[in-house]
Design goal:
Blueprint (H helix, E strand, L loop, with lengths): L1 E3 L6 E3 L6 E3 L6 E3 L4 E4 L11 E2 L12 E2 L7 H21 L4 H6 L7 E3 L4 E5 L2 E3 L4 E5 L4 E5 L2 E9 L5 E5 L2 E11 L4 E5 L3 E4 L2 E5 L4 E5 L2 E4 L2 E4 L5 E5 L3 E4 L2 E4 L5 E4 L2 E15 L2 E19 L2 E10 L2 E2 L5 E2 L1
Parallel strand pairs: 8-11, 9-12, 10-13, 11-13, 12-14, 13-15, 14-16, 15-17, 15-18, 16-19, 17-20, 18-21, 19-22, 20-23, 21-24, 22-25, 23-26, 24-26, 25-27, 26-27, 27-28, 27-29, 28-30
Antiparallel strand pairs: 1-2, 1-5, 3-4, 6-7
């Protein structure tokens, strides 16, 4: 319908049902009961004047006003924005997109969590956590730690299919430095050091652990590869352990190049059934150098082995 503004007399095209209308010209608010109706139904051909000059009978006579389209009110705008944005925000954080926010706001004194399918890149931090893991990963999460030092009961606790990359960093743990979940892919490189009282690195099953210019140590076990573990060592890397430097379950695969596995007071490499160890330049040293249960396949022609060797039943050695 068309009504007349009580202040400037301008015609206004308004919807029925409201009690207060704001003028598109002078900006004043009008109470419906005080406005004069010009037409019950706004004609289809009607157009609002671009400029309005108030008539003589109104208080604003002699002035000129330009037409201004009314902005969408907050009471209308906010539900619209929330309806559109909230599902997007929820999806963003649910799919791991909010992980960069977690890193940016991390206090470095509490556990930093990585959402499922998320990705964290942590650089230049010095974090120390009293309880729980320093970094806790959900399934399919990727964590990259660069130029950092972290310390706590557990350094990094990986979920299933975790991807963990440590570059030029130090991890000191009261229990386990890196605890990989099932199918973990762990890379430690660039003169990084990972240590734990129980284990430096612990793989759950099907773990892939790659060391390059890195040192991993444990007061009990340096690396526990778990079942089907694959361990690769390159560029003067080192595994140390007081009880066992490198422990393998079944079907382990170890490839050593220009690197060392050392246990001065215990066993350098200990394995169950069907483990393969290949050493092309490097050394294996321990109070017990090698200890296997059955079917070990050892190719150690270019490796210096120091200490007694218990190869178990059905072993092959070259």
């Amino acid at each position: 319908m068309l009504v007349e503004c009580s202040y400037c007399g301008a015609p206004l095209d308004v919807k029925e049902g409201k009690t207060v209308y704001k003028c598109n010209y002078c900006g004043q608010k009008n109470v419906q009961q005080q406005m004069r109706m010009l037409a019950q139904v706004t004609p289809n051909t009607w157009q609002a004047p671009k400029v309005w000059t108030p008539p003589a009978h109104v208080a604003t006579a002699g002035k000129t006003f330009k037409y201004r389209r009314q902005a969408l009110g907050l009471t209308v705008l906010m539900p619209v924005l929330l309806g559109v944005l909230m599902p997007m925000i929820i999806a963003f954080f649910a799919t791991g997109g909010g992980n960069w926010v977690r890193v940016a706001t991390w206090d470095e004194r509490s556990t930093l969590s990585c959402a499922p399918n998320g990705e964290l890149e942590i650089k230049g931090v010095n974090a120390k956590v009293k309880d729980g893991p320093v970094i806790e990963m959900s399934a399919n999460c990727t964590v990259t730690l660069i130029d950092s030092t972290i310390a706590g009961p557990i350094g990094i606790k990986g979920g299933a299919n975790a991807h963990i990359k440590i570059v030029n960093s130090t991890i000191k743990a009261e229990e386990v430095g890196i605890e990989g979940g099932a199918n973990a892919d762990i890379k430690v490189m660039g003169k990084s050091k990972v240590s734990g009282k129980v284990a430096g690195i612990s793989g759950e099953g099907n773990a892939k652990i790659e060391l390059k210019r890195a040192t991993v140590s444990g007061e009990e076990t340096g690396i526990d590869g778990g079942a089907n573990g694959k361990i690769t060592m390159r560029s003067k890397s080192k595994i140390e352990g007081d009880d066992v430097a490198l422990r393998l379950g079944t079907n382990g695969d170890v490839d050593i190049r220009d690197s060392k596995i050392v246990s001065d007071d215990g066993t350098a490499i200990e394995g169950g059934i069907n483990n393969e160890v290949q050493c092309r330049g490097g050394s294996i040293k321990g109070k017990q150098a090698l200890k296997f249960t059955q079917n070990a396949d050892l190719r150690l022609g270019k490796c210096k082995v120091s200490g007694p060797q218990d190869l178990g039943r059905g072993a092959k050695k070259k």
